Amino acid sequence: MMDELKKVFLAGVGSVAYTYEKASKLVEEMVQKGKLSMDEGKELSQELKRNMQASGEKLSEKVDTVKPLNKQEVLEIIQELNLAHQEDLNDVKEKLLKLEAKITSLEKRNE
């Protein structure tokens, strides 16, 4: 579980870095083409950097609040989601075996 969470976190960090890099290049191009002044470009770059840092901090806070679940918590989640657990599957399997036995018995009588 923690390994998957770590991969998701790293993917998020990678996408933030990639977005920042692309946005920075776009700002540079706009300054070179004269669509933004140097001061506007610097201001926009600084704002972009602050936003990316804030996003990274929010993501980091969320990861810090994640904790491993104990068995009882997992069972409660399964129950809330109305998922079948092993006992349910065993009951269904037992009923299925009984039905198969009855069908086989009826088939032998009809032969």
Kindly list the characteristics that best describe this protein.
85% helix; mainly alpha; 2 domains; 111 residues; elongated
Could you please describe the fold and organization of this structure?
Keywords: Coiled coil. The chain has helices at residues 2-32, 38-65, 71-80, 86-110. The chain is an all-alpha fold and 111 residues long. It has two domains: 1-68; 70-111. α1 runs antiparallel to α2 (38-65). It is elongated.
Total helical segments: 4
Counted beta strands = 0
Determine the N-to-C terminus distance.
55 Å
- Residue share in β-strands: under 5%
What structural category arises from helix and sheet content? mainly alpha
Radius of gyration: 29 Å
Helical proportion, percent range: over 70%
The largest sheet, given as strand count, sense and whether it forms a barrel, is:
none
Characterize the overall form: elongated
Any idea how many domains? 2
Give the H and E element order: HHHH
| Low-confidence spans | none
Average pLDDT across residues? 79
